[in-house]
Write a structure and sequence with these properties.
Blueprint: E1 3-8, H1 13-27, E2 32-36, H2 41-46, E3 54-58, E4 64-69, H3 74-82
Parallel strand pairs: 1-2
Antiparallel strand pairs: 1-3, 3-4
Length: 83
């Protein structure tokens, strides 16, 4: 099963704008893990995250399948998640 790693930061304006979209996506059944880049620098380094918000789609082995950077709509997020 796919999962989205959502790299965010408390100081990030676009991340704040996306908060309700991510919450709605999670309520709709999407498997999304929020990762604060300031609190988990190891994950940010592992997935080579250079800016936020970044969404990394990973497979069951936590291998990157795809990524998007920047503000996303709910529709775009669903399309990204479902491939």
């Amino acid at each position: 099963m796919n999962k989205i790693l959502y790299f965010t930061a408390s100081w990030c304006g676009p991340c704040k704008m996306m908060a309700s979209t991510v919450t709605e996506a999670m309520s709709g059944g999407m498997n999304i893990t929020k990762i604060d880049v300031d609190e988990d620098q190891d994950m940010s380094t592992k997935y080579n995250v250079r800016s936020v918000p970044t969404m990394v789609l990973v497979n069951q082995n936590n291998e990157e399948v795809n990524r998007v950077v920047g503000l996303q709509t709910l529709t775009a997020l669903k399309d990204f998640y479902n491939g």
